[in-house]
UniProtKB/TrEMBL annotation, chain A:
The chain crosses the membrane at residues 156-177, 183-203. Residues 1-51 are annotated as: Disordered. The keyword Transmembrane helix applies. Keywords: Membrane, Transmembrane, Transmembrane helix. It comes from the Bacteria. This is Uncharacterized protein.
From TrEMBL, chain B:
Residues 178-329 form the TNase-like domain. Keywords: Membrane, Transmembrane, Transmembrane helix. The chain crosses the membrane at residues 69-90, 102-122, 147-167. The keyword Transmembrane applies. GO terms for molecular function: nuclease activity; nucleic acid binding. This is Nuclease. Pfam families: SNase, YdjM. It comes from the Bacteria. It comes from Rubrobacter taiwanensis. Gene3D superfamilies: 2.40.50.90. InterPro entries: SNase_OB-fold_sf, Staphylococal_nuclease_OB-fold, Thermonucl_AS, YdjM-like. SMART domains: SNc.
């Protein structure tokens, strides 16, 4: 029995026919490509650098799970991966969107178990930088990883964590002011720390996502 | 960002810094902060300042590009050291140097909050942004900039009164004070008196002022100390006579204001208070005698926090500029 979980209700084709005519399975909102998880070639990051000779897979930049998911999708497109090996697929026939959902629901260990034999000894080109332990995870599977960077690529440094330093200073100043017997400094540092602590969830949210 | 946005945000930062970091400023500092808050845009020929500078701006743009060298920490340090010290030397007010740094730094911070960010660590090409998420940053010239300037204006208006009295002053005012009325029975020296109130004689030390010593056993008589002591005696220990010529009381009636925050007594057991006199004989007791001593150049200011610290410092600077009292008679006196 076919339990199609895609929104297109089976109108999209079940498997890609190859070539460059992939449908847009973007997870972004209002027709915009999803950031870092867009699997359509239309919205692929244009690095301006061609991959080296003999690349087996090409994936966009991302963190560990996103990289594994993209890699699994690429393997599926190449006909190397059987979706039914994933527990989350539950033996159904799935299209790309369904597979992507199943991959994100799966644990990283399970994806690595399925991908391991497929990528061993293969060369994987990443269009950018693999954040966190993404590179280590793929290399552990026995693949060779190449990360592409443009010479004039804009690189950002997020200054939001400075707020946490200020909060730490405010907390320290409270104790210093107690030692100095300075009441107004104690009140000022207390107000500053209370503000920082109260707005803490917002400050965490303000930080730049690691994938960008 | 627009010029007005940078000026408003620069002033907001100056008022906030003055309130929190305990320095007082005058008009030159306000102007310095305003000018320096637009200075980094000299590297952009399309900006307002770029238009005024003409070819200089184009050369800067050609050499470094926009939001690079002039928007870096290196430029902030160089401009503060060069322009700030020059203004300090010209005006004689250290606050102008702080204002230069705050104004210039406010521009970097404001631009860091835009989508483009700034090369804060130039010559490194890393673009510093705050906050990190693009959707939370300001779009230059857009609605978000209008919201930003409105919020900065509100904060500037809130911080301005606090910056005039200082955060200490605000806290002390919020804490309130106790009021006592009494008769001055003795003047020990320029800043110490004895007041009889509620049947008890209490030694009182005037808060925030320090007249040269005249009675300290282990110290010589200070320059202009006798004059300060005589003035206090003349004003506070004035014999009160009624219309018939009869002596009503030997000393003057005063109002003592004792802050509730901080110590109420000093190390010698003297009550710390502001002394108000009824200068107009209408029973209002609104004239602050402590401030009179400073305005006439008879006392220096103390460095510890109290309610009217900022006001006293302003009065002391004016007296110093006029060369009033000890400021001209005792040129070797140390400025606190």
């Amino acid at each position: 029995m076919d339990f199609d979980t895609s929104k297109s209700n089976g109108r999209d084709r079940r498997r890609p026919s190859g070539g460059n005519s992939f449908p847009d399975f973007s997870t972004g909102r209002a027709g915009r490509p999803g950031r870092g998880f867009d699997t359509s070639r239309r919205y692929r990051h244009q690095s301006g650098i061609d991959g080296g000779v003999g690349e087996d897979f090409r994936i966009p930049a991302g963190a560990r799970k996103a990289a594994l998911v993209h890699l699994a999708l690429e393997a599926w497109r190449a006909g190397l991966l059987d979706p039914k090996e994933l527990g989350e697929v539950r033996g159904r026939d799935v299209d790309e969107a369904g597979l992507q959902r199943a991959l994100y629901r799966s644990s990283m260990g399970e994806i690595e178990h399925v991908l391991g034999p497929i990528v061993r000894g293969k060369r994987i080109v990443v269009e950018g930088h693999l954040a966190g332990t993404g590179r280590t995870a793929i290399e552990r599977l026995g693949a060779e990883v190449e990360e592409l960077r443009l010479e004039d690529e804009r690189r950002y440094i997020d200054m939001t964590p400075v707020i946490f330093v200020v909060a730490a200073v405010a907390m320290a100043v409270r104790y210093v002011s107690l030692g100095l017997d300075d009441q107004s400094l104690y009140i000022l540092a207390g107000i500053a720390f209370a503000l920082m602590y109260g707005l803490r969830p917002f400050f965490f949210k303000m930080q730049r996502p690691r994938d960008e | 960002m627009k010029v007005a946005t940078h000026i408003v945000f620069g002033e907001c930062c100056l008022f906030a810094a003055s309130a929190v970091f305990d320095f007082h400023y005058e008009i030159p500092s306000v102007l310095a902060a305003a000018v320096c808050s637009v200075l980094p845009d000299a590297d952009y020929p399309k900006s307002w300042l770029g238009h005024q500078l003409g070819s200089v701006s184009e050369d800067l743009y050609g050499a470094f590009g926009h939001r690079s060298f002039l928007h870096s920490l290196l430029a902030l340090v160089l401009v503060t050291a060069a322009l700030g010290s020059l203004l300090w030397w010209i005006t004689g007010q250290p606050a102008t140097m702080i204002a230069v740094g705050v104004g210039y730094g406010s521009h970097l911070f404001a631009d860091m909050m835009t989508l483009g960010g700034v090369q804060l660590f130039w010559p490194s090409r890393l673009i510093a942004v705050f906050p990190g998420r693009d959707e939370y940053r300001v779009v230059s010239g857009g609605n978000s900039e209008r919201v930003f300037v409105a919020v900065a204006l509100i904060f500037a208006l809130l911080f301005y009164p606090v910056s005039r009295v200082g955060f200490d002053g605000l806290i002390y005012r919020m804490g309130g004070s106790d009021q006592l009325y009494g008769e001055v029975t003795r003047v020990t020296d320029g800043d110490t008196i004895e007041v009889e109130t509620q049947g008890r004689t209490t030694p009182v030390r005037l808060i925030g002022v320090d007249t040269p010593e005249t009675v300290a056993p282990d110290q010589p008589i200070g320059c202009f100390g006798p004059q300060a002591s005589d003035y206090t005696k003349q004003v506070l220990y004035e014999r009160q006579i009624n219309e018939e010529g009869e002596v009503v009381r030997e000393g003057r009636l005063v109002r003592l204001e004792i802050p509730r925050i901080g110590d109420s007594e000093d190390a010698y057991g003297r009550t710390l208070a502001y002394v108000y006199i009824d200068a107009n004989d209408d029973g209002s007791y609104e004239r602050l005698f402590n401030e009179d001593l400073i305005e006439l150049g008879l006392a220096r200011t103390t460095t510890f926090a109290h309610t009217y610290r900022r006001e006293f410092e302003r009065a002391r600077e004016e007296a110093e500029e006029r060369g009033a009292g000890l400021w001209s008679a005792c040129p070797e006196v140390d400025t606190p």
